[in-house]
Amino acid sequence: MKLHSNRWSHLAIVLSLASAASLQADPPRHSILPEQRCLAIRRPDQLVQVPVPVTPRPATVSDPQFEFPQRQLTLNDAINITLANSKVVRVLGGVSASSSGRTIYDTAITNTTIDQQRAAFDPNVTANNVWNQIENPAAQPDPTDPTQSIINGTQNEGYGFDFGLTKRNVYGGTASLGVNSNTNRITPGILPLNPSDRTATEFSYTQPLLRGAGRTVNLAPIVLARIDTERSYFQYKNAVQSSVQGVVEAYWSLVFAKTDLWARRQQVQQATFANERTKSRVEVGDANAGDLAQTQLALENFKASLLASEANVLQRQAALLNIMGLPPFESQRTVPVTPMVDQRIAVDWVAINELAQRQRPDIIELKLILEADQQRLAQACNDAKPQLDGIALYRWNGLEGIVPAGNRIRSTNGDFTDWSLGVNFSVPLGLRRERAVLRQQRLVIQRDRANLDQGLHQMQHLLALSMRNLDQFYSQYERFQAVRRAARTNLEQQLAQYDEGIVQFIVVLQAIVDWGNSVSAEAQALSQYNTELARLELQSGTILETHGVFFYEERFQTIGPLGRFGPNRAYPRSQPPTTSVTRYAGGDRPSEESFGLENPAARDRADADDDEAVLPLDMDQEVEFQKIDADGNGEMSDEEIDKILNEPRTSRRQWQSFKNRVFNR
């Protein structure tokens, strides 16, 4: 009893020291974790903070920063910059760009599942070592005193070693090799062998004959992993295609916005000129306050439209920067210099349909889904079979040990062997779950075939829509070219008649509006036509190929099959696109200047100034006054001349009338 008391006291001291050490190292811990009876939400400032790039204030309508230095940007450069910054693929959405949810790492991440499924066929090694000591007390009568008993026991010390190697093959069979060794020493006692060593080496093989049998069903998980990798690639490719098309759309939208801005500025200049003329006419009494209010209202409306156009330019420029992966502020204003395509392009309907069903990533993904369904159907068919396994085992047994005389003896190799052959059968009565899964998979195949048909149906309608849009936009471009020429002629005529006082300003105002709208509509139609060309390439699934964009594999080194004891191996890391697009022509002037932007009113005023310079009035020339009567004959009297000269000269219209009626050169 004293020995046991000392043991318990020593154990208590050790536990106390360990508890004191833990109290010094860590705060107190609960031996039993408490319940979570409240919401433990950390504040945002307690989370990890990430640095945000510091950039100056972006451009706004009140601070457009149009006076900043300019940087010429071709469409090739815009696409290449976008592809270089596409670790996360962005797509255009209106006047902004957002993440598509795809990255350059997705395919490599999914590719790891192939090795995960292959691991099922890797050899598996187990090695177990166990040391045991068993002491069982027992009571026996005391030989010296029958009324007493003594407590003693035996000590059994043992060591066990178990080694196993298993390997599954592609046909479903599993081969196993095992080695077992057990050593026992019993004290006190006199035994035939003490210590004794028992060993056994066995080889076994189990082969499924129905469920789980066959190469196809066992390799199906690997095939499914490969299909998932291909699906991930084509989903990523589809996102990159949308990104390239978005860059083209954002680029041409910016060109249109800058062209529209130029037209609105010209409208403001023309309205300002008309307003100043009206003020002068009011001063000389040739116009009233209503005329001035009308021109001022028109001027303010044009300024409001100009403000909206400036905002649209800033929004389109920001959208282009966004999808290119650049910050919202730029120290140099981006100036597109790639001219638009202004030629009609013919499309072969039959050829583009065949090309689209072969190249479109979404159609390819639907085909891959059907392939995966076939693999799952094979698995479901196999699972609907009973479990029937054939087994075989052969074992070599051995024994050795030390006899009481002290010498060691052992059994002869191969004298003691075991073997067994058998067939195991099991099946759930009815196989209800397995057959329900089989029916489900067959229905899934029919559904996915219908989805493929719908995908082809939608593909054709999208191609037809793009072809209709191409024809419509180009036809509109041709019509708006004619409208612009007519609007320019109309504006020139109305300005000339307004200068002569023949028409009112409301007619000139409408001519200015029509001319500005015609310039904007022509640019918009051509911008839509060029954007639709890229969209047609997107719908056919060839926009990357036509732009010379391909994917290359980046690799990285990490731990290989041999673990830390072997060299690192190279594995796929990412699949970024190339950045060498050279499809579009460059330029040395802004893209909007390809529309032949010229203010017709300014040209007319310049022509008028040139005419006056060529035919100046000679104030020293003798003038012959003639009488202007009903028949246009006869000389004017002095009284008639004085009457005409005394009339108030209130406008340029009266001056022109007087000059035409009186002066003859």
Which SSEs are present, and which pair or pack?
Elements: H1 2-25, E1 70-73, H2 75-84, E2 88-93, E3 96-103, H3 106-118, E4 124-142, E5 145-168, E6 174-187, E7 196-208, H4 215-284, H5 289-324, E8 333-336, H6 349-359, H7 361-383, E9 387-402, E10 408-410, E11 416-426, H8 432-499, H9 505-540, H10 543-546, E12 554-558, E13 569-574, H11 600-614, H12 638-646, H13 652-662
Parallel strand pairs: 1-8
Antiparallel strand pairs: 2-3, 4-5, 5-6, 6-7, 7-9, 9-10, 9-11, 12-13
Helix pairs in contact: 2-4, 3-4, 4-5, 4-7, 4-9, 6-8, 7-8, 8-9
Kindly describe this structure.
With 665 residues, the chain is of the alpha+beta class. Among the domains are: 110-133 and 151-217 and 385-440; 619-665, no CATH class. The chain has 13 helices and 13 strands. The model is unreliable at 1-8, 11-15, 17-27, 605-632 and 648-665 (pLDDT under 50).
User: Whole-number radius of gyration?
Assistant: 47 Å
Please tell me the overall pLDDT. 85
**SSE run:** HEHEEHEEEEHHEHHEEEHHHEEHHH
Structural class: alpha+beta
- The percent range for helix content is 40-55%
User: How many extended strands?
Assistant: 13
Count of alpha and pi helical runs? 13
Gap from first CA to last CA: 150 Å
* Coarse shape: elongated
| Poorly predicted regions | 1-8, 11-15, 17-27, 605-632, 648-665
Major β-sheet, in short?
Answer: 7 strands, antiparallel
